[in-house]
Write a structure and sequence with these properties.
The complex is a heterodimer of chains A (about 550) and B (about 200).
Chain A: H1 23-27, H2 32-60, H3 71-106, H4 115-137, H5 151-155, H6 160-187, H7 200-232, H8 245-262, H9 265-279, H10 286-300, H11 315-343, H12 352-375, H13 377-383, H14 387-417, H15 423-449, H16 464-494
Helix pairs in contact in A: 2-3, 2-4, 2-16, 3-6, 3-7, 3-14, 4-6, 6-7, 7-8, 7-9, 7-10, 9-11, 9-12, 9-14, 10-11, 11-12, 12-14, 12-15, 14-15, 15-16
Chain B: H1 2-36, H2 38-44, H3 50-75, H4 79-109, H5 126-162, H6 172-197
Helix pairs in contact in B: 1-5, 1-6, 2-5, 3-4, 3-6, 4-5, 5-6
Classes of the chains: A mainly alpha (about 550), B mainly alpha (about 200).
C-alpha cells in the first residue's frame, strides 16, 4: 500500500510522498496529506463494498418475483448498502480526503490545528469500519440504515447492536474531523487570508463541520439508547412497554437530516472551485455563496420533521416543517444560480473536472427540485416510502456528492499525486457516469410516482419496465465508476508529471509544487490579493 | 505558543458544544417522557436519595473550586499549590464516584435497575417508572463515565506537573482539562434537580 504511490527518483525534489518510506511512515504519520491518502484508500474500499450491495439489490429487482434472494436477505442487502454508503463513504468522502488534503493548503497553513487528532479520527474510522465489516461477515443487519424501533429494538433477529456500535464509533471520527477543521479555519489562516478571501471550498467545509459537531453527538446517543433498549429490554422507544417510537425518529432525524447536508455541502464546495477555474472568472456573488453554505447548515437543523409527515406527529408541526423545508431550497437555489452566472460570459473549458461539475449542477437541480415535491404535505402523503424518494436522494447523494467527489478528485489529482491522468478517459468516464446515472435513477421517479414502494424484494409486474431500465443503467454506472479506478491508478505509474498549476487555477494550493512538500510551502505564504483573482492575465496556463 | 494555546482552547470549547448535544439527546428524551408520564415520574422521586445527591452536588462544586485554583496556581507558577489542587480535585472526584456507586447499590437492592428484575410498588406505573430509571442510569452513568475520564486526565496532569511541565508560560493542558471538568460539573447541576428534586417536597 505504502510504496504504490511513491515515485522515488534521485533527481526529484523532496515532497510529502518521498520524504519517508515504509508502512510505519504512513500508519504513524501526522501529515494531513498522508492521512488524506489513508482515507482515500479506505473510503474507496467502502465505496466498492457498498457498490456491490447496490448491484445485488438491482439484480434482484430486475424481475418482479423475488427469485434471487429471499426477503430477509434482500432486507440485509439494502440495509448494508445504506449503512456502508452513508456512514463509511459519503460522510467522510470529500471532507476527510479532499478537505483534509486541501484545507490547510488553501489557507496557507502547514497542517491542521491538531495533527494527532486527525490521525486518531482515521483510526476511529477504521475501527468502526472493521466492526461494520465484521457485522456483515457474520450475517449483517436488516433494519434499514434508519434503525427504526420497535423493529430494531425488539423484533429484528440480526446483529443490530453490532451495527449500532459501528455507527456510534464512526460518529466520533466525524466529530473530530469537524472539530479539527473549525479550529484550523479559525486559527491557522496565513497573513492576509481573511474570511472574505477564503476559498468557497473552505466555507463549505466550515458549514459541514458545524453540522458534524452539533448533529453527530445526537445520533450517537440515540443509537446508544437504542442499543441499551435492545440489550436490557426496557421501553425507551418500544411502545409495547411504554416507550415512544416517534421520539426515536425525532432524535434520529435531528442528526440525520442535517447529515444529508454533510453529504452535499462539501460537493458544492468542490463545484465552486471547478466552475470558477474552468470559466476563468471570479465566482459570481461570492458572499452569497459563502453565506448560503452557512444558511443551509443552519436551516438544515430545522427541517427534520419532513421525514415524519405520515408518522402521526402533530399536523401543525408538519406545516411548519414543510414550510422550513421549502426554505432550504432558497440557499440551494442561490448556489445553482451563482454557478450558472459564474459561467455566463466566462471562457469555459470542457475538461474532465468541468464535465463532472456540469453533471453535478444538472443532477443536483433535479434532486433539489424533487425535494420540493416531498416537502409539500399533500404530495408527500402519496410519495412517502416510494421509489420517488429513493430517486430523489440518489440524485442529490450520487448525482451531487459522488460527482462532486469525482470532479474534485480529478481536479486536484495532479496536486495530490504529481501525475496527470489521461484526459480522454477522464472525459469518457464523466460521460458514462452521467448517462448511466440518469438511466438508473430517472425511471425510479416514474416507478415511485406510479406507486412502487421502496424496500420490497418483489413488486407488481407493471413496474418491471422501469426496473429493467434501472438495472441496465446501474451496470453502465458501474462501468463509469470502474474506469477512473483503473486509469487513476495507471496514472500513478505512467501518467505524465504534473506541473505545479496545470489548470491555471487561483488559490494558495496551486502555488506550491505538485506534489507539495511535507510542510506544504517552502516559504510561509501571504495572501495579498482577492480570492479567485482570474481577472488578471492568463499566463502560465498549461492545458492538460 | 500563543496560537497553540488559543487553538487548544477553541478546540475544547467546540468539543464541549458536541458534549452538550450529546447529553442534549437524553435531556430531550427526559423532557418528552416527563410530560407524557408526569404521575409516574413524580412517584420516582420518592426513591431518590436527596441527601446523598445534595452531598454529591457540594462535593462537585468544591472540586470545581479546586480545579479553578489549580489553573490559577499554574498561571502564577506555584508548583506546590498546583499539585495540591490537582490532588484535591481528584479526591473530590473519587468521593463523588464513591457516593454515586453507593446510590447505584441502593437501587440494585431495591430492584430499581431496569430490566427483567425491575419491581415497582405502584403497578400502574411499572413500565413508565422503568423509563425514568432507565434515563436515570443512562444520564448519571454517562456523567459518571465523564468523571472517570476526567479523573484519568487529572492523573495525567499530576504526572506532568511532577515532571515540571507546567509554568506560567505553558499551562494549556491544565486550562483545557479544567474547562472539561467544569463542564462535567455543570451537567450534574442540571441532572440533580431534574432527577432528584422536582416534586420531592410532595412526599415529605
Amino acid at each position: 500500500m505504502s510504496t504504490a504511490i511513491e515515485t522515488p527518483r534521485s533527481t526529484e525534489t523532496l515532497n510529502y510522498l518521498n520524504t519517508k518510506y515504509g508502512w510505519k511512515s504512513w500508519l504513524f504519520t501526522t501529515d494531513h496529506k498522508r492521512i488524506a491518502i489513508l482515507y482515500l484508500i479506505s473510503i474507496s474500499f467502502f465505496f466498492l463494498l457498498g457498490g456491490i450491495f447496490a448491484m445485488l439489490v438491482r439484480l434482484e429487482l430486475a424481475t418482479p418475483a423475488g427469485d434471487l434472494f429471499n426477503s430477509d436477505t434482500y432486507n440485509k442487502l439494502f440495509t448494508m448498502h445504506g449503512i456502508v454508503m452513508i456512514f463509511f463513504f459519503l460522510i467522510p468522502s470529500i471532507p476527510a480526503t479532499l478537505g483534509n488534503f486541501l484545507i490547510p493548503m488553501m489557507i496557507g497553513a502547514k497542517d491542521l490545528a491538531f495533527p494527532r487528532i486527525n490521525l486518531l479520527s482515521w483510526y476511529i474510522y477504521i475501527v468502526a469500519g472493521l466492526i461494520a465489516v465484521g457485522t456483515m461477515a457474520y450475517g449483517g443487519v436488516d433494519t434499514g440504515w434508519t434503525f427504526y424501533p420497535p423493529f430494531s429494538s425488539t423484533y429484528s433477529r440480526t446483529y443490530v447492536v453490532a451495527a449500532a456500535i459501528a455507527v456510534f464509533v464512526s460518529g466520533f471520527s466525524s466529530i473530530l474531523t469537524g472539530l479539527n477543521f473549525i479550529v484550523t479555519i479559525h486559527k491557522m489562516r496565513a497573513p492576509g487570508m481573511t474570511f472574505d478571501r477564503l476559498p468557497l471550498f473552505v466555507w463549505a467545509h466550515y458549514a459541514t463541520s458545524l453540522i458534524q459537531l452539533l448533529g453527530t453527538p445526537v445520533v450517537a446517543i440515540t443509537i446508544a439508547l437504542l442499543g441499551l433498549e435492545r440489550i436490557f429490554h426496557v421501553g425507551i422507544f418500544d411502545p409495547a412497554i411504554g416507550g415512544d417510537p416517534i421520539l426515536f425518529q425525532h432524535l434520529f432525524w435531528f442528526y440525520s437530516h442535517p447529515a444529508v447536508y454533510i453529504m452535499i455541502l462539501p460537493g458544492m464546495g468542490v463545484i465552486n472551485e471547478i466552475v470558477a477555474c474552468f470559466s476563468r472568472k471570479r465566482p459570481f456573488g461570492y458572499p452569497f455563496i459563502a453565506g448560503s453554505s452557512i444558511g443551509i447548515a443552519v436551516l438544515g437543523f430545522l427541517v427534520w420533521g419532513h421525514h415524519m409527515f405520515v408518522t402521526g406527529q402533530s399536523m401543525y408541526a408538519s406545516l411548519v416543517f414543510s414550510l422550513l423545508s421549502m426554505a432550504v431550497a432558497v440557499p440551494s437555489a442561490i448556489k445553482v444560480f451563482n454557478w450558472t452566472a459564474t459561467m455566463y460570459k466566462g471562457s469555459i473549458r470542457f475538461e474532465t473536472p468541468m464535465l463532472y461539475a456540469f453533471g453535478f449542477i444538472g443532477l443536483f437541480t433535479i434532486g433539489g427540485l424533487t425535494g420540493l415535491f416531498l416537502a409539500t404535505l399533500a404530495t408527500n402523503v402519496h410519495l412517502t416510502d416510494t421509489y420517488f424518494v429513493v430517486a430523489h436522494f440518489h440524485y442529490v447523494m450520487v448525482g451531487g456528492m459522488v460527482l462532486g467527489y469525482l470532479g474534485g478528485l480529478h481536479f486536484w489529482w495532479p496536486k495530490i499525486t504529481g501525475r496527470m491522468y489521461p484526459e480522454f478517459w477522464g472525459k469518457l468516464s464523466a460521460l458514462i457516469v452521467f448517462v448511466g446515472f440518469n438511466f438508473t435513477f430517472f425511471p425510479q421517479f416514474l416507478a415511485g410516482y406510479a406507486g412502487m414502494p421502496r424496500r420490497y424484494h418483489a413488486y407488481a409486474p407493471e413496474y418491471q419496465v422501469f426496473n429493467v431500465m434501472s438495472t441496465a443503467g446501474a451496470s453502465v454506472l458501474g462501468i463509469g465508476f470502474t474506469l477512473p479506478l483503473i486509469y487513476l491508478i495507471w496514472s500513478l505509474f505512467y501518467g505524465p508529471k504534473a506541473p505545479a498549476n496545470p489548470w491555471g487555477a487561483k488559490g494558495l494550493e496551486w502555488e506550491t509544487s505538485s506534489p507539495p512538500p511535507t510542510y506544504n510551502f517552502d516559504t510561509p505564504p501571504v495572501m495579498n490579493e482577492e480570492a479567485y483573482n482570474y481577472s488578471g492575465d492568463d499566463t502560465g496556463v498549461h492545458v492538460g | 505558543m500563543e496560537q497553540q494555546f488559543s487553538s487548544a482552547q477553541l478546540g475544547m470549547w467546540a468539543f464541549l458544544l458536541t458534549e452538550i448535544m450529546f447529553f442534549g439527546g437524553m435531556f430531550g428524551a427526559y423532557t418528552v417522557y416527563r410530560s407524557m408520564y408526569p404521575g409516574a415520574f413524580q412517584s420516582t422521586t420518592h426513591y431518590m436519595n436527596v441527601t446523598l445527591g445534595m452531598a454529591n452536588t457540594l462535593v462537585l462544586i468544591a472540586s470545581s473550586l479546586t480545579m479553578a485554583l489549580a489553573v490559577r496556581s499554574a498561571q502564577v507558577d506555584n508548583q506546590k499549590m498546583l499539585r495540591i489542587m490537582i490532588v484535591l480535585t481528584l479526591f473530590f472526584g473519587f468521593v463523588f464516584l464513591g457516593i454515586k456507586g453507593y446510590e447505584y447499590h441502593e437501587k440494585w437492592v431495591e430492584h430499581l435497575i431496569p430490566g427483567p428484575h425491575f419491581e415497582y410498588n405502584v403497578p400502574n406505573y411499572a413500565h413508565q417508572a422503568q423509563i425514568l430509571f432507565f434515563l436515570y442510569f443512562a444520564m448519571t452513568g454517562t456523567h459518571a463515565l465523564h468523571m472517570v475520564i476526567g479523573a484519568g486526565l487529572l492523573t495525567y496532569l499530576l504526572i506532568k506537573s511532577y515532571k515540571g511541565s507546567f509554568s506560567s508560560h505553558y499551562y494549556t493542558p491544565v486550562e483545557i482539562i479544567g474547562l472539561y471538568w467544569h463542564f462535567v460539573d455543570i451537567v450534574w447541576i442540571f441532572l440533580f434537580p431534574l432527577l432528584y428534586l422536582i416534586g420531592a417536597h410532595l412526599h415529605a
